[in-house]
Specification:
The complex is a heterodimer. By secondary structure, chain A is an all-beta fold. Chain A has no helices and 11 strands. Helix content of chain B is about 0%, strand content about 55%. The chains are: A mainly beta, B mainly beta.
């Protein structure tokens, strides 16, 4: 079955540590997205990528970094500069342009907590 | 910045009743989408309605769009316990970056 796989499901970060969240898709979608969701809140866009080796900042990119070396992979690194990283992180993809006119497919998320 | 605002923030009804959720937005859009999120899971796309459409149906779901009022509603008929979830609207703006903007969601609880 085609879909988006996020790992790990739960992740704990120590102070001053960088952690990387994995997102892999086998849908052959061009665009991929990272969202942050805080309890009882909506989704806020962190980064997105519409083509390999290119990505753009979303609304809350500070303290995060991404790469898009392969079409199917879009890992997110939460750096030590992100002072409040505790949240639920969701990865999504959409097939082609125009990007905002296609449904997005989501993974099942990674819950990140501070130790 | 949040484009969509859902109302109510939380809704609790009895099984078998209809549930209505509303979404308001601020700028002109190409389309509006509704998603469902079960607790601890990712979002699942339910329905997309384009700016030139006024109503759309999918099973027990009915979505309306009023572009003059910049608002949409999602109606779930004959609710079931399995409909318990959070529901989000997302708008695809005409201008600016080509990305969806999600609202804060309505938490729907269906009581057996």
């Amino acid at each position: 079955d085609g879909g988006i796989t996020q790992s790990p499901k739960y992740l704990f970060r120590k102070e001053g540590q960088n952690v990387t969240l994995s997102c892999e898709q086998n849908l052959n979608h061009d665009a991929m997205y990272w969202y942050r969701q805080d309890p009882g809140q909506g989704l806020r866009l962190i980064y997105y990528s519409q083509i390999v080796n290119d990505f753009q900042k979303g609304d809350i990119a500070e303290g995060y970094s991404v790469s898009r070396e392969k079409k199917e992979s879009f890992p997110l690194t939460v750096t030590s500069a992100q002072k409040n990283p505790t949240a639920f992180y969701l990865c999504a993809s959409s097939p082609r342009q125009p990007w905002s006119e296609w449904p997005q497919h989501f993974g099942d998320g990674t819950r990140l907590s501070i130790l | 910045s949040q484009q969509g605002e859902e109302d109510p923030q939380a809704l609790s009804i009895q099984e078998g009743e209809n549930a209505t959720m509303n979404c308001s937005y601020k700028t002109s859009i190409n389309n509006l989408q509704w998603y469902r999120q079960n607790s601890g899971r990712g979002l699942v796309h339910l329905i997309l309605i384009r700016s030139n459409e006024r109503e759309k149906h999918s099973g027990r779901l009915r979505v309306t769009l009023d572009t003059s009022k910049k608002s949409s509603s999602l109606l779930i008929t004959a609710s079931r316990a399995a409909d318990t979830a959070s529901y989000f609207c997302a708008t695809g703006p005409i201008q600016g970056a080509q990305k969806l903007v999600f609202g804060q969601g309505t938490r729907l609880t269906i009581n057996p």
